[in-house]
Write a structure and sequence with these properties.
9 helices; DNA polymerase, domain 1; Rossmann fold
């Protein structure tokens, strides 16, 4: 019996990938690198920041370490995503409210920091629906490791077979599956066409995902 739904944050609840891409564009411009959006979509969308940094340092032979680039990106993130919430994904609020109205428990499991999630909870007034937020701050390993999902399950007091995860990326899907969760994917402009092998279902929008949930939780 399904008792809970665990939502990813970036790309699932909020349309943040454009912002993430833009932050990398600005940082790489400091090194004279023009960073194509298609490359971001193909290799970095939905992937934790430290993996992004490692990829970019090697790909463009940057004269700094991946750790230094990661720290520069973290500073830029705090100055941007940590202050102003990104727009909600169409249908995300409605889906969350629908889940709550049916008496299911909810949590967020994200590769982002708590500071990045806070504006979403406060400025979009979603905090009332998410008492539990599992972020990279609480775990040793970020996605695609299962740690954030396991932390969310522990806080919910539920088993993996009692929850469904909603993701937008292959990295997030791998994390949820590694935790033993059933996972559906809602594609966005940055994850469309990625390999979602193992997903219970893949949808083009959140409304379609909600209709699927309606059949699954009965």
């Amino acid at each position: 019996m399904i008792k809970g739904v665990i939502f990813d944050h970036d790309g699932t609840l909020v349309d943040s990938e454009r912002k993430h891409y833009g932050l990398w564009v600005d940082l790489l411009a400091e090194f004279g690198v023009e960073f194509p959006e298609e490359e971001y979509k193909a290799h970095l969308a939905g992937v934790p920041t430290h993996f992004n940094a490692e990829y970019l340092v090697q790909r463009y032979n940057l004269p700094i370490s991946a750790e230094t680039l990661f720290n520069k990106r973290e500073n830029a993130t705090r100055a941007s995503l940590g202050l102003t919430a990104c727009p909600l994904i169409p249908g995300a609020r409605e889906c969350v409210e629908w889940v709550v109205a049916r008496g299911l428990q909810t949590a967020i499991a994200t590769g982002a920091s708590l500071a990045e999630v806070k504006p979403t909870l406060e400025q979009h007034e979603l905090g009332r629906y998410f008492a539990i937020v599992a972020s990279r701050d609480q775990v040793a390993r970020a996605k695609p490791a299962p740690d954030v999902y396991q932390y969310a399950l522990d806080q919910l007091g539920l088993n993996a077979d009692e929850c469904i995860a909603i993701e937008d990326s292959a990295t997030g899907l791998t994390s949820a599956l590694a935790c033993g969760l059933e996972c559906i994917v809602v594609e966005n402009d940055y994850s469309k066409g990625h390999d979602f092998t193992g997903a219970a279902a893949v949808f083009e929008d959140m409304s379609a995902a909600q209709r699927w949930l309606d059949t699954r939780i009965l």
